[in-house]
Design a protein that fits this description.
The structure is a homodimer. Chain A is mainly α. Chain A is built from nine helices and two strands. Chain A binds a DNA duplex (30 and 30 nucleotides) through helix 3.
DNA sequence: AACTATATAATTGGATACAGTTACACTTGC
DNA sequence: GCAAGTGTAACTGTATCCAATTATATAGTT
């Protein structure tokens, strides 16, 4: 593996897991030292992450973990609806019975992972990816995957807040049944509802947490806590 | 302007204008020399262009201009339909009369640019951007812009082939009228039709040209074209 | 003590040097 | 003439060095 890739993986994992929260400043030299590499490959990894929307170059091109406002997140969910509707619609006419068996198995796995939110999300995303793969639109799948990734840290915040949160298992069974019916229209509405529900919960939660409202101001980044003038 | 940006602009313009056709190998040293800079900023520009889909790193990570098959292009058009439908729908409820006046003016400008295909496309894209800006979904607008960009070289090939090609001016007036009616559903169907028409023409043309079928993949010498040379 | 000016450190963009790898051309033997 | 082997040139990845910019700390002034 190249140094660039190592930096990419480290940073991406840090951001997606929430270990590097939104607004965190990233120091290329520091990251490089952590991996025993120079800052050049880190710099390149940051460029890639910026393209994916996970990192933003702030004032003076200093890299920070992207901060999303509830409005941003709502927009991303709306885009997901448009994209996943299409993917679901196309997939619905291309599913085999073997696919349905795989998806059932995946739902089982999700149920069994239930207490572990991160594990559950992993399996949940894989469940959707399995469906969208059947749409045979690789760029569409990739786009969906990327948006889901961008929102993930905020979804984790939401789930972490409600430890005893009940995952919408029933919704997925419903979605699967709609797909089994073979009706593209029903598949589309099912997935639309599914995403809209998640969006509503997450955005409502974030607005009450005041996430990404004051933090959007660069001056209030948490990194500044140490030197209070 | 930074060296990285200069390289980015040069390469992007080259690709979008068709001066660097699909499959062209890009030599970072060469590009750097052309701008009086080293290959490092060029390398970084290439990373950004890869993220946008305009450049691909081929065997041994050598950068080449991305080659799209007709299938890829069809997929991109389908995604555009999903995204632009949403944008149009949202925009339709947010348009002011001043916006409509601006759009009318833009249509006039497009008509007057008529013989110059590149100029026309520029104005045409701006016309659509003006509408989508009203959707107030910046990421959506950006995504649409990016996909349109990716397809542009192929659209130009199509237009260049039919010099006397009649631009679909009437369709845009129709779209504008649908927007004026204020019905999101009608706006959605109008833009869907509009894009689908373009997609059909361009993809049909490209398939007959055998663009990106055998040349795209050195391994596969398949010919998918309907022998209509 | 607060304010300002200045020195110093940190950070970024970029060039260059160097190692490892791959492609290419040129033998050399058949 | 052609296949295989070999040496060379080109290319990529990366570290390091330098310059310019920006932030931080320090010292002096009031």
């Amino acid at each position: 593996m190249t140094a660039q890739n190592a930096a990419y993986e480290l940073l991406k994992d840090g951001i997606l897991s929430g270990r590097l929260p939104a607004g965190s400043q990233i120091n290329p030299v520091e990251v490089g030292a952590q991996l025993g590499i120079s800052r050049m490959p880190v710099r390149e990894a940051l460029l890639q992450l910026e393209a994916e929307g996970l990192v933003t170059f702030g004032l003076n091109r200093r890299p920070v973990v992207t901060t999303l406002t509830p409005k941003d997140i709502l927009e991303l969910f709306e885009i997901r609806i448009a994209l996943e509707s299409l993917a679901c619609e196309r997939a619905s006419t291309r599913m085999s019975s073997a696919d349905f068996a795989d998806l059932e198995a995946q739902l089982g796995r999700m149920d069994r992972a239930m207490p572990d939110a991160r594990k559950w999300i992993e399996l949940h995303d894989a469940f959707h990816d399995m469906i969208y793969d059947r749409a045979e639109m690789p760029r569409l799948s990739e786009g969906i995957r990327q948006i889901r990734q961008t929102v993930r840290p905020y979804l984790l915040m939401y789930i972490d807040a409600y430890k005893s949160f009940e995952m919408p298992g029933a919704e997925h069974t419903g979605l699967l049944n709609m797909l089994r019916s073979g009706s593209p229209e029903q598949a589309r509405t099912a997935v639309t509802e599914h995403i809209r529900n998640t969006a509503a919960s997450v955005v409502y939660f974030l607005m009450n947490q005041n996430v990404g409202t004051s933090a959007a101001n660069p001056n209030t980044s948490q990194q500044l806590e140490g030197h209070k003038k």
